[in-house]
Design brief:
It is a single chain. With 309 residues, this protein is an alpha/beta fold. The protein has twelve helices and seven strands. The strands form two sheets. Strands 5-4-3-6-7 form a five-stranded mixed sheet, covered by helices on one side. The protein has a two-stranded antiparallel ribbon with strand order 1-2. A hairpin with a 4-residue loop joins strand 6 and strand 7. It is elongated, with a radius of gyration of 24 Å. The two termini are 21 Å apart. 25% of the residues are buried.
Length: 309
């Protein structure tokens, strides 16, 4: 896949070069069509991983961050940005972090351009409806915004709050423990539930998207198989205060799940977990370390399928 992407970029470079040889030098009355100029990966770098690393680190080297006209050319700028985000998944988290921070540092050449790209990052990496959503990649963006001297303190309040939430319950770290309550009044804690894996499912009974995800989970063949083999438990948690609505919804939840609510409403009020969008799925291992954070149903199911191959 990496080679495919690099080959496509190489073909684009060759195509642009050939066009450049045929193009007549414009006179003063002719307008030069703006374009995103891709960097060339040195031929001496033959390892796929090293070529991908070079590409993401130097991706924006030839882009003029002072030319704000590019803000009004999404077919050029936003497309190049989208391709950049796509390539980041082929490098390590450390390289991706460095590439993003380096790019944002270059964007400080113009405050308007810096804000434009910060907004694009939020649109692609943080918006719950974005197919490219990736909170881990969004963290270095937030850090760059907070450390940017061109952004005033008032406009750093929101990204600072986003960063605070993003740093909680990160992938690879232990999930925060909490107490839940069952319909019969019995209480338990997250760490009391013993299983090889746990699906932590925050939901709301009146949420249409939650109904869809609940139905998807209940119909998932791989989840059913894992539950049958006692490899996973589902802990469903209602984090809001309308207990009457939750109680009326109990019978519609799968009987094999641990269906609970947060009596203190502390999960939401104290933002113990980032519940900016409901439903929210976390996958935990037997030690309650986070494997997937704020995952989609497809991401969750794909993870289980990969473990069964």
């Amino acid at each position: 896949m990496i080679m495919k992407i690099l080959c496509v970029f190489s073909l684009l470079l060759i195509f642009n070069a050939c066009n450049g040889q045929q193009r007549v030098k414009p006179n003063k009355e002719q307008a030069v069509t703006p374009a995103f100029e891709m960097v060339s990966v040195p031929a001496m770098i033959t390892d796929e991983g090293q070529r991908a690393n070079y590409l993401v680190i130097h991706y924006w080297d030839k882009f003029n961050f002072k030319d704000t006209a590019f803000i009004h050319l999404p077919e050029i700028t936003e497309q190049a940005f989208s391709d950049f985000i796509d390539v980041l998944k082929y490098v390590s988290s450390e390289t991706a972090d460095s590439a993003i921070k380096g790019m944002m540092s270059k964007a400080e050449a113009d405050s308007t351009m810096f804000v434009y790209f910060a907004d694009l990052y939020e649109k692609y990496l943080y918006d719950p409806n974005s197919p490219m959503r990736n909170e881990e990649l969004y963290i270095p963006v937030l850090q760059s915004v907070i450390n940017c001297s061109m952004i005033d303190e008032v406009n750093k309040i929101r990204p600072s709050h986003q960063l605070e939430l993003a740093m909680k319950n990160r992938v690879g770290e232990p999930a925060t423990n909490f107490t839940f309550t069952l319909a019969n009044g019995k209480k338990g804690t997250l760490y009391d539930v013993k299983s090889d894996y746990m699906l932590l499912y925050f939901y709301n009974p009146d949420c249409h998207a939650c109904k869809e995800v609940t139905e998807q989970l209940a119909a998932s063949g791989v989840l059913k198989e894992w539950e049958k083999n006692k490899k996973i438990k589902v802990l469903a948690v209602y984090p809001d205060e309308d207990l009457e609505a939750w109680t009326a919804h109990i019978s519609s939840m799968p009987s094999g799940w641990i269906n609970s609510y947060d009596e203190t409403v502390g999960l939401k009020n104290d933002e113990v977990y980032d519940l900016k969008a409901i439903p929210t799925l976390y996958l935990l291992d037997k030690n309650k370390n986070v494997l997937l954070k704020d995952a989609t149903f497809r991401q969750f199911e794909d993870y289980l399928l990969q473990q069964t191959r």
